[in-house]
Amino acid sequence: MKIGTIGTGFIVDMFLSAVEQLDDVECTAVYSRREESAQPLAEKYGVPAIYTDLDQLFRDPEVDMIYVASPNSLHYAHSYQALEHGKHVICEKPFTSTASETNRLTALAEKNHLLLFEGITTIHLPNYQTIKDCIQELGSIKLVQCNYSQYSSKYDALLHGETPNVFNPEFSGGALADINIYNLHFVMNLFGAPETVHYAANKHENGIDTSGVLLMQYDHFTAECAGAKDTKSKNFVLVQGEHGYLHVENGANGCQRIHLHLGEKTVELNNQIMTNPLYYELLAFREIFKNQDVQQCYELLHYSQSVMDVYEKARQTAGIIFAADKQQESD
């Protein structure tokens, strides 16, 4: 599987580190608008080609798969163009700005029999599968609490009058998109879509959410997902059932260690060896690519569609409007 990357942020560095650890996967090209931005990554990971023209990247016959890690607002356009050129795509979370963008990407991928993945680490982690395997031991679920909060250095810039992409409605930023999306995936991959959703957000004067609490109401229980980029917290997940509770250390992003509490008994579970969480999602994508298992890919894709539906509803309840929403209204 030969990959070309779009973007030069820290997540691309993590992704290429994961690529190095897998057989039959290599990065053959990196793209950036400025060559000097891509040069350090290309040198670090021995990537042979640097492109500053997207069309050249998409036409490169040595590239099977495009990894999209551009600003959130460009996920849709870059993924769509790659699919149009016959390339498979891994697109970073959040998948797109709107649910309709995800629907259009899905339709194009299925029409052209191409693989399209959302790069969300949580659901591919071995410890997350362990949670799925043991959650029935908790009995009837009553409460789910998730907190993933990480003070952003870009928040200081926001306070000083700048508008970094991650805090810019024009670039589809915000705490829900950037960080609380992990909590949303954690809950929905276990329990499906909620009956109702409401997002109570702390918003900057430009309308973007810097932190907030997502409340998801299911038939017999409630899930509460807190995510912040303007404060720090002890990150965790707690799933409470009538027979016990499950505690995930350090939050939904990495699922680093699990503590299963049943009565007076506590069991510690940890099936993850690799410290880079992107390793496990890339491992899953490699196997699907190797087997050309479009059915499994499209099952994941339709799941991502359901998450984007809930994500958009949550955003709407908080009155968070992206440039992509306005564009959608005018189309």
Structural notes for this entry:
Residues 128-246 form the GFO/IDH/MocA-like oxidoreductase domain. InterPro entries: Gfo/Idh/MocA-like_OxRdtase_N (IPR000683), GFO_IDH_MocA-like_dom (IPR055170), NAD(P)-bd_dom_sf (IPR036291). Residues 2-118 form the Gfo/Idh/MocA-like oxidoreductase N-terminal domain. GO terms for molecular function: nucleotide binding. Pfam families: GFO_IDH_MocA (PF01408), GFO_IDH_MocA_C3 (PF22725). The chain is an alpha/beta fold. It has 2 domains: 2-121 and 279-330, Rossmann fold (3-Layer(aba) Sandwich), CATH 3.40.50.720; 123-276, Dihydrodipicolinate Reductase, domain 2. It has 11 helices and 14 strands. The chain has helices at residues 10-20, 35-45, 54-59, 75-84, 99-111, 126-134, 153-159, 175-191, 278-291, 294-317, 323-330; strands at 2-6, 26-31, 49-51, 65-68, 88-92, 116-119, 141-149, 196-203, 209-217, 222-228, 236-241, 244-249, 258-262, 265-269. The strands form 2 sheets. Strands 8-9-10-7-11-12-13-14 form an 8-stranded mixed beta sheet, covered by helices on one side. A 6-stranded parallel beta sheet has the order 3-2-1-4-5-6, sandwiched between helices. Strand 12 (244-249) and strand 13 form a beta hairpin. The longest helix has 24 residues, at 294-317. It starts with a strand and ends with a helix. The mean pLDDT is 97.
